[in-house]
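chain below, 346 aa
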Amino acid sequence: MASCQIDDFWFSFFNKAINSAVRVRQGYSIEIELQDWIQLAGLTDASSYADIMALFYPGLEGNPYFNEPGPRRHDLLTALNDEKYKEFYLHMLTRSDLRFPDVHLLMRTTRAEGKVMSTIVAHIGYWLNNEPAVVQDRNANKPLLRRAFIPALQKKYGKNANQKSIELEYQVLMYVREHFSTITDKAAEHFLDQFPTSTEHDYNGRFDHSTWKNILIIVHAVVGPHFQNEAVARCNHEDPNTIQSKPLKSILHSICDVISSSPEISQSSVLGKKAAIQTLPAKLRPIIARWAVDQCDNALELYSADWQHAEPARVKAERTKYVVLRDAELETAESAFLTVVNRPIS
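prediction:
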């Protein structure tokens, strides 16, 4: 994987694994068993208190800082007595220095997955540096891609910028590993090849997708208002958390991709033209918005009695989101109609 130009990520990953194993040995006088490691690897920095409690004390609800220990998981850390088991649980709950990365999953990383990871880091290099390193396949002396982060990070961290670039790369790539499927699905995979060096596409359109938006949020949280590329310069004065993800756009990308790849379309000298395909989203957008609202209405009417407590509220919130999109499309259509009607007859 050295060819991916993200060497420090691999080093950081294995160092975290080794450090955690050493901490457990020193603090609890046990060796982590393989089965324990696999279960603990399910907890990440994004895991909630409820996630941690569910692993250590399944069935326990309420305050995670309970006084009386509940029924512990019978097949986890069996070498620890109940007191040490609870101490280990509280350590996981309150501190982030003890983590168990999924080493087995990392070892199975394919070359294609490594390429996706390095491409994401390259994109961030463009965000933070007007002259970033680029992904290179055949150069024997490939520069580390995360070094493009350093000039922007120096503005905030000074001499610690190099270490921060390693930490930022690690945070981003751990997130990427957990979201490979959404980054590489039909609706979003084209974003990987579209760098902010061309005016042929809307680079900011990727941030309508929650995965790319969250990558931007991770970077902004570390770098602050020090983005260099015009495509993301608004993050120097706007919080990327305020960017609204647009599920309709993602749905349209998926549908248009399927339609355009069907033989009847792709082999047509008229329908298969790029210009024709580009008109599809505008034609389909109002139809999809109305369909989504109708499906939410039907579900609330027919199935809500069988749902668990939180489900009706979730569907209602989803319906509200699509109603706004539907009404916006209707308003746009009405405005276009009035423009035609009121046009002077020549």
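The chain has a mean pLDDT of 82. The longest helix spans residues 311-341.
thats it, cya
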